[in-house]
# Entry
Amino acid sequence: MMRYRDIVIHTNSGIFGREEELKASPPIQQWVELSECMSLGRLEQGLAKAIMDTCEPKALGISPQFRQYAQLYSFVHELSGDVDIHRWDHDNELTAVIGLSRLVHPTAVGFAYAARVGYESEGMKEIFPAQIIGVSKEAFLSPSRTRDWLTYAEAHVLRDLVTSLKQEQPRRVHNALWHHEYATRTYYLDHRWTLVCTGLEALVHTDSTRNTAQFTKRVPALAFELGVNISEPEAAAAYDLRSRLAHGVSLIAAKTSHGPSPAQLHLYDRLEDTLRTAILRSMQDKSFADIFRDDDQIRKRWPI
# Structure
């Protein structure tokens, strides 16, 4: 009888030149059971190569390029029952777990090497690449993020988070998580900036008036609680840029030769850290999450 697994491979392209970080924080080597049907670890080399070969674009009359990277580790969802080989991650559980993994530590694990694999007792029989539309298959890290992998200890933190998938989260936290994941799968900072700021607004915006004050007062206060340093003038600058970007007044890089300044990148990283850590804490601490269930609780916790 054919059985199926949904698999996402995270490649080792981000480890090169990171020898010191590899020593200090080695990536996952052994398997970690995230739930009864979800696990994280290294696939057998032949299977990983077959999945990557199948997922890469094919050309007629042109020799494929030599791939200069391989599997670092993989997310595996063991499926039960009679499933369709073409409906990768039909319940969105694997996508959700990968989104949760970025809360524990930001990585660029994407879906370029995502597939549903059919196998029998004697081994793998079928591979069908994931058909993803509406959002990028790739994820991107800020240039200042240099460690592109989870450690064994972080995998165990993720395991605890996976249990919260079945628990109802406040709508604000759910919306913030969606914006965080969409931002990570967006390349241009112009759009990431607005998505991250909107994710923060999903957490702290309570009233139809004094929009700027709600952001510039509450985001620094929230960040402070989470161990991130954002001043009120920096929050004001972030919200002003968010507004100009959202209304199409300007772009961060008006010309292809120009990009964000170091100061903008540094501020963006702290905004993203605040959003990421707020969602993570909400999923780990029910009392913190409950703040986001009630507007009055938010007003009381972070007054303007």
User: Anything to note?
Assistant: Strands lie at 3-11, 32-33, 38-41, 71-78, 114-120, 123-129. The two ends are 62 Å apart (CA to CA). The first strand starts at residue 3 and ends at 11. Residues 3-157 form one domain.
